[in-house]
Amino acid sequence: MVLGPEGVGQRLGVRSQGMKYRLATHDDADAIRTIYNREVLGSTVTFDLVPRTLEDQLSWIDEHSGAHPAIVAVDDHDRVRGFGSLSPYRPRPAYRTTVENSVYVASDVQGQGVGKGLLVELLRLAAAHGFHAVIARIVGGHQVSIALHRSCGFELVGVEREVGRKFGRWLDVVLMQKLIDPGAPEPPSA
What we know:
Layout: E1 15-16, E2 19-23, H1 29-42, H2 54-63, E3 70-74, E4 80-88, E5 98-105, H3 114-128, E6 133-139, H4 143-151, E7 155-166, E8 169-179
Parallel strand pairs: 5-6
Antiparallel strand pairs: 1-2, 2-3, 3-4, 4-5, 6-8, 7-8
Helix pairs in contact: 1-2
């Protein structure tokens, strides 16, 4: 799979915290879907209400290629333990240098550095693709995700009040942002 600008994929395949980070493929679709659907059905970290089908997940992977990749963290047995992606922030052309990140980790390896490894790799890919800003939209009260993003240099830029509704509750969205300096050193590793 080609990532885009020359050299962008050089570091993918790197190991950190016992995980290998690589581009997602169709072979990863069911594992990604399992991790994601657990959050759809049991938490507010995603505002999706309907679990993804395998067909939905394959389409999502196809949409996350090139400058807007999806990556996975795999263990020594090549099992997907987490995934992340860069997505266009908004459809209007003036937003093309801004992306939104997403990171999801299997419940049995949360708190073990997998999320940080994914986020660090996504930030590296964002810089390599020439993006200027990365936005995180995090459900209000999700302190683990807020702390993860802070640890990678994101700053709080606002809160959207009661913009979502799930499980009978109004939900806020915390907006965090990191400006990318392509010449800056890489963020700290996981």
